[in-house]
Amino acid sequence: MPLSLLARHNPLASAEQQLRLLANSTACPPFERRMATAGLHPLHATGITVFQINVGKLCNQTCRHCHVDAGPDRKEIMSRETAELCITALTGTDIPTVDITGGAPELNPNFRWLVEEATRLGRHVMDRCNLSVLLIPSQAGLAEFLARHRVEVIASLPYFRVSQTDAQRGDGVFDKSVQALQLLNRLGYGREGNGLTLNLVYNPVGAFLPPKQEAIEAQFRRELHHAHGITFNHLYTITNMPISRFLEFLVDSGNYDGYMERLVNAFNPSAAAGVMCRYTLSVGWDGTLYDCDFNQMLDLPVDHGTPRHIRDFDPAKLHTRRIVTGNHCYGCTAGAGSSCGGTTT
After folding, report:
1. Could you read off the pLDDT of 124-161 as tens digits, one per residue?
2. What's the sign of the alpha-carbon dihedral 167, 168, 170, 171?
3. pLDDT of residue 338
4. Is the pTM for the entire model greater than 0.90?
5. Which of 3, 46, 92, 253 is the most buried (most CB within 10 A)?
């Protein structure tokens, strides 16, 4: 059942086909069974410390392994009404961190308003930035805006060399990324002690698990500083999730069974106990609530009697909700674990 037969940019059909393929994989036992043997099923949230807002799938890039299937032609964009519901929900809580993602979240017309409102509430704001968006003429002053509001920039960069980065993100993206990082450095980002945090995100280009986070961070730090004078605070490694474009790549390249088997064999109970869905609530572009951004892309909203839309936000029920899981969750529990903040162990 090749995913290339999938009607592109039909999220519901795509999600159904992906879930069927993952559930029927001969390479892995049901994730819930593996969690049960670790004493972790059913999995429950331990609270909400990260309020993640996915403002849509519009992006200025079309990356090969994007789990969001984002691109310049996507029409899924969070409205001002839904953005206001997010801020209203946040106001009634003490959730400390707001994580704004996309697509390229900065392309949403409500992005700057969300940042201003969240910081007005005293929340720490993170922007998941693809870097090249900072150089778009229509986004003039964006980097300065982020610095002024002391937004933490979490920047995705596949590698510290041009060939690997452009292979995943498109010709010329590495050079633009370097320019953007240098711009952020000039504004004070990436320097210890000044409160302007610049963290990088690395995920493998191929069908393998990421290396040890500390080792690859040291390599990035050395190479980027030597070649381009770039500094940053930390680097996070993220395992490629077997969904969306990366799942299509696995199937088309004949690596699907091998990759799933690799994830299963690397299952780590300690990593499973610390998965990000236990402390994160993810809000979709249309206001639907999810346990994580990956579940969002598979159209798996919160369940088990929990309110499913931001307009019905109920902190008491959401703080201890039962997490929706599936075989794609092996991606977050392999090795040292994987989350939006890097390893979990």
Report:
1. 999 999 999 999 999 999 999 999 999 999 999 988 99
2. negative
3. 78
4. yes
5. 3
Question: Residue 235: in which H helix or E strand, if any?
Answer: strand 234-237
Write the DSSP assignment of 171-218 as a string of letters.
TTHHHHHHHHHHHHHHTTTT-TTSS--EEEEE--SSSS----HHHHHH
The residue type of 47 is G
In sequence order, the β-bridge partners of residue 126 are: 99, 152
Strands 97-101 and 124-129 come out as: parallel
Rounded mean pLDDT of 258-285?
96
Q: Is the peptide bond before 210 cis (omega within 30 degrees of 0)?
A: no
Per-residue model confidence (pLDDT) at position 165: 83
User: In the numeric block, which tokens belong to residue 211?
Assistant: 């290396």
Rounded CA gap, 254 and 258, in Å? 8
Report the distance separating Cα 82 and Cα 89, nearest Å: 11
User: With the CA atoms of 204, 199, 189 and 171 taken in that order, what torsion angle do they form, in degrees rounded to the nearest 10?
Assistant: 20
